[in-house]
Design a protein that fits this description.
7-stranded mixed β-sheet; homotetramer; 4-stranded antiparallel β-sheet; globular
Chain lengths: 274, 274, 274, 274
């Protein structure tokens, strides 16, 4: 069982929380706590042994500051919808994990602005919606995407190499619930064609960044990042290919962290109890 | 201020501890907790804001199981003695950090079974004791080393590429207080000449391991390990040279972890709140 | 176009080879050369621009020492057969790459000693042969496997978490053509249950090793290895899960290296021009 | 013996070069070659067994395109001058390697715009020049630095955390001979206070970049980069401290590469035969 709490900091919080858990006879297996002194914020994640959590949230509320965010999840189990364009690597990885039930979440459907990846979805009996960005206004397209998403009511929307920029209006409907994989180690190479820019700059590392989507392009809170070494022998195409491996790994890792309730968001940052 | 506690696990420990801290008006900045379910052991490390810790240990004792190990360190400050043979890389790194006061500990003296590194010690005004293993029994040599150590009463003895095997009798005098850097990623390549063995096996990684010394050769609890890639172009000598970089880094990291009270030892393992 | 040559070393080899390539108007894009001085062996891999390679092998032979191994591959294109047991991660990764034609090789069929992975193969229209090890002698089982393999005449046989030990007789039929993924950084934790052993030893790294299969268990020439950090919070099950990620990545990398003619084998080692 | 050649590409270069080496009875131990197709440039680095290199450069010239850069170094041996401000970590690492003769180069002197590091230099009998930036124009200060440098005629000038920006006029005197360590993975966080910016952006990686200095701030050709993971628990000060470890390692690696004649510069990029 996972308990996560985010609230204003004050002396005695851990004691109050732990005392209530003890009263519920819930043994703490693992605990991660962090205080952001500058922001005066308190974050805690507790894994407790299975037990009776009836009334736990209500019991916690009075000992926490007003406005505390409390989440008690008997089983970390999330639902996700995936948006794609043409590249397969992130999607296929997610579909395989979903099929073998090791994702820790259920993929409900896939939406593509191209139909390139329809066949792989069908092979996994995964509903695929082709909503083209052509011959349609951006607003109309986003409305259609939004309609499909709301039909499924997912916890998270995963942009698995979805190559269209979403409007602030769309993003506002799903605050801190859209996860994107960007193909560079942000804040280097914001925007389009990061591998081309990396090639031209002659960097010796390329990377990928999984982040929540905010209104600023590639500026949302970062969940996970990783890099791989490259050298002069890498063409742009070779960088793209190598980058796809790291994109897949970083997005898989970020999803695992989010799905297991290990990620807190505040301001433009995350606390990640990895 | 750092508080570390290790004891038998039971429901309510975190609550009891945190309640006492709150009563002392000590605000918890960061907290790491771990329970080893199989061994039924509880480990916690707390960083609290500076405040009044008078009587804290006594206040904690009654709420903890019998036999609890409690340590309250207002300033994490340790004393160490370093043993060396001929290789300079780990020693020089430690001397430099000590000189610039970034080690988090004080190096009290260096003992070498060769005098190769006497000059570098003198350049840093560091006492150096040359205790040769030649023309002396192992017991006599260890007695001399032990005498020097006990004169300084260090918290830890660091084997910074000390190439003699210490007897069980010697090790028993300083239980879990001797830290060794072994030049392989244990348990691969136990014993002598690990780089030669690595070369012959044709591995694609070499590594280093910092561990506490127990009576079994290279079998003590591991504190930190790291690796670097190698390939067919590496001779044994090139592996040794590359390995020295990683040995230096791993030992520096392990010392930091130990010095900051981040390492708990039990059975033949460590809990490391890195 | 890829040209690889392995032979006894002597002065002038590169000049002789390059002169012949120049005569064929083949421009060298990239060249990697290595000499093992102790063994007096010469290895070279050349990527040349497309051109006329008719008669190239015959032209090279006279300028090379007797017994030289020469391979000129206009397109690096290999055929592989995959052997599995129950774990899906390596197989699924290979099937996905094969389906999207990014493997650089064709998977011809999959053979499983359990039928657990039959369904995923069928979803990719991949022939699956269930050859159980039960109610059959090892020799009989291996004969059946060998029969299927020989029907397809693959370049390589990939053990993608195939959990049966193959007999020397079987291995001898496919010398240096069987690639295994072992779930530890060899030579640590040879044999069964490496993660359990890693847990008990309290290591801070776990890893995976892709190697050619020889007659000695887990002793064949190593192609690629990689590690990931672990800590005290990892149960054996968590290590297995984390390890599967690295096993998948290491096997994918090793296959890429072998498929692109970047791996030379001699004695019990490899030269890898990565 | 190291031979490096950079020139326009054309068919037959490797053959011509290798044939001449064979005529000189120079056996090639290791060879790295790269062609930048877009720029039509050829780069080669050869390690040959010791032998007679008299007249080799003259023999090579006629078979290479006009303007070829040829370097034949019987012993890779360079001289360097180090510029510092207040931070010790990179300088101390260089001084230690220099003292133990493992740098592969000779440090001739150290110039500091503060005198903070004078004492450590003196402990290693290293000449230290204190040239303050205070009460002096930038031009005057750079003239003094330049005077000291020219007295020693070093191959390379190493900015080991030298925190003043050098003028284009100064840089132009030592084209592609000034090596800087920048405390971020470029091109992220160009300019001042990269760790502060990294903290504010909430990145999960920090890094360091060693590069040649050109006229654009932090825009010169990159030699080496590396990163380390960070998380929410890192204050700016903790990032600085962790970053210093990676700065030291990256600069040491870049110096090794440059000193061993493994780095070619063209346009704003490097070819590194690592």
């Amino acid at each position: 069982m996972i308990i996560v709490i985010q609230c204003k900091d004050r002396v005695g919080l851990v004691g109050s929380i732990a005392t209530i858990l003890a009263r519920h006879q819930l043994n703490i297996i693992s605990m991660r706590e962090h205080v952001d002194k500058a922001e005066d914020l308190f974050f805690v994640r507790l894994e407790v042994e299975d037990g009776n959590i009836g009334g736990l949230e209500e019991a916690l509320k009075p000992v926490l500051p007003v406005g505390a965010i409390i989440s008690v999840n008997p089983i970390p189990y999330k639902k996700i919808v995936v948006l794609v364009t043409k590249e397969y690597h992130c999607l296929a990885d997610i579909l395989v994990r979903n099929y073998f039930k090791t994702l820790g979440a259920t993929v409900q459907c896939v939406i593509g602005n191209h139909n390139t990846l329809q066949n792989i979805c069908e092979r996994f009996d995964m509903p695929f919606y082709h909503i083209s960005h052509e011959q349609m206004s951006k607003a109309a397209m986003e409305q259609q995407i939004s309609d499909v998403i709301q039909r499924y009511a997912p916890d998270y929307i995963v942009l698995a190499k979805f190559m269209r920029i979403l409007s602030p209006a769309f993003v506002a409907r799903f605050p801190m619930r859209i996860i994107n994989i960007h193909h560079s180690f942000l804040p280097a190479f914001v925007g389009a064609n990061p591998y081309k820019k990396a090639f031209e700059r002659g960097v010796k590392l390329i990377g990928a960044t999984a982040h929540f989507v905010s209104n600023e392009l590639d500026e949302g809170p970062i969940i996970a990042q990783q890099i791989i070494p490259v050298n002069h022998s890498f063409t742009v195409a070779a960088m793209v290919k190598a980058g796809q491996e790291i994109e897949t790994a970083v997005l898989a890792n970020a999803l695992k962290l989010v799905i297991e309730d290990r990620v807190f968001v505040y301001k433009n940052k995350t606390v990640v109890f990895g």
